Amino acid sequence: MKVKKLILLVSVIIIYSSWLPSAQANTAGDIENHWAEREIETVLKLGIAGNYPDGAFKPDQLITRAEFIKLLVIAGWIKPSDQKAQPVFKDVGPEFWAYSYVEAAVDAGILTIAGNNERFFEPNRAITRTEMAAQVGRLMAAEQLQGVRNATDYPPISWLDVLRAKGIILGYPDGELAGSRGLTRAEACVVILRLKEQLLEGQAKRERQWISRMQSKDGYITMAGGRQDVNPYFGNLTLVAQLGQPEYWVEVKRYLEWTLAHLNYPDNLGLNGTIYNFRLIDGVVQSENTYDSADSYAATLLSLAAAYYYASGDANFIREHFQEFTTVSEIITTLQDTDGLIWVKPDTKFKYLMDNSECYRGLADWSSLLASLGFKDQSELCGGKAGLIKKGILERFWDEDTASFAWAIDDQGSKYLLSHGQAYPGIVAQIYPVTFGVTPPTSQKAILAYQKLNDELPDWAELEVGDTFPWAILGYAAVIMDDLSGADRFLKNCRSTFINKDHYYPWSTFEDAFYIRACNALQKRIKADLN
Fold first, then answer.
1. pLDDT band per the 50, 70, 90 thresholds, residue 492
2. How large is the C-alpha radius of gyration of the chain?
3. What share of the chain is helix, strand, coil (3-state, %, to 5)?
């Protein structure tokens, strides 16, 4: 038995390594105990930089102009340029390894040719700090980061001062910025990570603004992207992302008030506290008198209420609507079966992995909130019910033969396993237990399930998911699973494919919310790795 467990453990370790980016799996040996070891490792994990062919990173070697431009283009999600009829610089032609990055930097306004009449880039010369600051500053200006003026504004900008003000560079102990000095590869990694952290924050802020514009003055929110659906399940998950900025707390509260005012007592299936789907028709919100699920609608509302309380500290609102939230929580426990798992709704005898993962999170969040408000007995009872869901997910949904989660179980106990190449529901469902906290990312089942997703959808980060929808939750799950390169590529592709094109369908407020959460999760991870 012990031998079998040892073999399984070794297999998990091998599998875990297989989906990691090559740069992450092959950390250079010459960065061990280096002052910037953590920052360099994170840049490698993100896939922004790599080692030299001999496997060394050479952290103390001065970085060249070409090398830095490549880092900047990748970190800034700038698409490399195709070959042009006439290269911008005489010494950087199509045959040069960094040609596409240099051309892209010119196209994006990061590199300028003003005053460079000879049109030489000097790609192999060590970049100076002044040059580095100008390139980083222009990218920050193009991304409209707060506190960064437009690059064309007058009077001329001291980019070194801008970067110091933004915390990108700190200067030497004597306060000197030493603009004429070079930059080591280690120092460049630190600059890039500080920049990346701020770019992700700026991206998340812009998307929260877009979601805010999609919310009505009454509080409800449409899915947008040309759709007029008012789906409370999607709305709950969308508004969680808005809590990341205090200025949107009032909008989340207004949404909660609208939702609570539209609960059913009872609905057409005899349940109290449920809510139907709505549709905006000629400017009027009309009920469809049905819902897709009773369990997930309730669970995600509880999670939103808890998240609102912990963000805003508004205990009065929770106490004012305590009975309504309690009724919502009872939907889940009413639908709970003897195995701990939750039926989707009274007339549909299926237990879904996605729904049960959300139900675990919802009851766990509500239990935590109850404890914070001093309701110890109710908290323990609710927490116990959440624990039964967790146990049921890990024992009943897991399939040993396929090393993956079933996506559904019916009333006969039959498991429904994923179908090859079909993202929804089976493949995407694999990341729900880890995303909603049922199992930690280091657990054997989380690792195997994430490997299964990567086996079935190897190009998911390039948005090739075999489904109409982009499933932005994948980017959020990737950060949780420490797949930083996959997460960063996925976010970049979502921005270029959907966000920069007017958030067109099938992008929605729901997708945007998980995009925001992924940006913030990646930002938080980067910030933690900065000394």
1. very high
2. 25
3. 55, 5, 40
